[in-house]
Specification:
The protein is an alpha/beta fold. It has two domains: about 200 residues, Quinone Oxidoreductase, Chain A, domain 1; about 120 residues, Rossmann fold (3-Layer(aba) Sandwich). It is about 25% helix and about 25% strand. Helix 4 crosses helix 5 and helix 4 packs across helix 10. The structure holds zinc ion (2 copies).
Length: about 375
């Protein structure tokens, strides 16, 4: 792993090159724009993936300028999402390396590009999976921006939030309420919006039986949202030890799959209207289809890559369905942040400085983190 460059390359007015120590340099030339001499290129720290499957590298890069229609955000916090592994392993079409991951960004607008009229410097914002869209393709023409065929995803199509600064299209920004701390807001930009937006569009109404499979990064938010949206909330996890936590998060009931058959338990309760599948385990998801009631839906947000094993008969007889849900737009993120403030939903997080990205990532990937790792640049 490459360490931070401790010194910065600076060009003085006479054109010669000298090296300056980083601390006073950053203080004077990055945080105080009045002293920002135009010939100086300030740097930022980023954590990049140099090539598919490689370890993170901590490097310095020039702070990027926002182009037309873009906004630059000073990152205050960035959550680590399981989907970042698509970038780390190179398992996403069209990736260009090196790439800075991160699509759970909370920060402050630092500069706006030409033609941006709806955002100002100093505004607090979030950036999530919907980083921008083309406004021209068929889904965009129908207003379905998150399904844009040219969707911009921070950390995938352009550099994301494992960095001190990020440049992003203006349409991918979400306003952030004052009452939300950046480290709490960051996970709401993917784990939060994905569970909230899926549940609020699921067709379930107050009192319906909604089960949440998995008590991890997505699941611990899904349980809270299900409860706050008024559903009869059942948490499903492995092991007795998760029961207290599930109930603290708002679950009316906890089902331990180690000691009971969750599908049968759900049927005893009348069958689930919705099973929100957050754990990225295709087998665990498949096992719950028989727990769905008449017209019930297995609503999948956990990005597993193994095939589901379900027979057509399991779906036909009770008119069941299986549906995937891809987060939402930046405006949906705004709703998520507002609802979280209104209802008291917050992620449980562990914070790490950017320099500890490898450790933070490892805790996320091995399922040790409780429940979202958040980088603080
Ligand atoms: Zn994500
Ligand atoms: Zn489009």
């Amino acid at each position: 792993m490459q360490l931070y460059h401790t010194r910065h390359r600076v060009q003085n007015a006479g054109g010669s090159i000298f090296w300056s120590a980083s601390s006073w340099y950053r203080k004077y030339f990055v945080t105080s724009r009045r002293l920002w001499h135009p010939t100086i290129m300030p740097d930022m720290k980023v954590a990049q993936v140099p090539r598919p499957g490689a370890d993170f590298e901590l490097v310095t890069r020039p702070i990027p300028e926002p182009g037309p229609g873009q906004v630059r955000v000073r990152v205050e916090a960035c959550g680590i999402c399981h989907s970042d592994d698509f970038v780390k392993q190179g398992h996403w079409p069209g990736l260009i390396f090196p790439r800075v991951p991160g699509h759970e960004i909370a920060g402050v607008i630092d500069a706006v590009g030409e033609g941006v009229s709806t955002w100002k410097t100093g505004q607090r914002v979030g950036i999530g999976w919907h980083g921008g869209n083309c406004f021209k393709c068929d889904p965009c023409r129908r207003g379905d921006f998150v399904n844009c065929v040219n969707l911009k995803i921070p950390g995938f199509t352009h550099d994301g939030g494992y960095a001190e600064y990020v440049v992003n299209p203006a349409e991918g920004l979400a306003r952030m309420p004052d009452d939300l701390q950046p480290a709490d807001a960051a996970p709401l930009m993917c784990a939060g919006i994905t569970t909230y937006n899926a549940l609020r569009h699921s067709g379930a109404v107050g009192g319906d039986l909604v089960a949440v499979l998995g008590i991890g990064g997505l699941g611990h938010l899904g349980i809270q949202f299900a409860r706050q949206l008024g559903f009869h909330t059942v948490a499903i996890g492995r092991g007795k030890d998760k029961e207290d936590l599930a109930r603290q998060l708002g679950a009316h009931r906890y089902i331990d799959t180690d000691s009971s058959n969750a599908a049968q338990e759900l049927q005893r309760m009348g069958g689930a209207r919705i099973v929100l599948a957050t754990a990225p385990s295709s087998k665990a998801m498949s096992d719950l289809v028989d727990g769905l009631g008449v017209g019930g839906t297995l609503l999948i947000v956990g990005a597993a890559t193994e095939p589901l094993t379900v027979t057509p008969v399991q779906l036909i007889l009770s008119r069941r369905s299986i549906l995937g849900w891809p987060s939402g737009t930046s405006r949906d993120s705004e709703d998520t942040l507002a609802f979280s403030v209104q209802s008291g939903v917050r992620p449980m997080i562990e914070t790490f400085p950017l320099a500890q990205v490898a450790e933070a990532y490892d805790r996320m990937f091995t399922g040790k983190v409780r429940f979202r790792a958040v980088l603080i640049p």
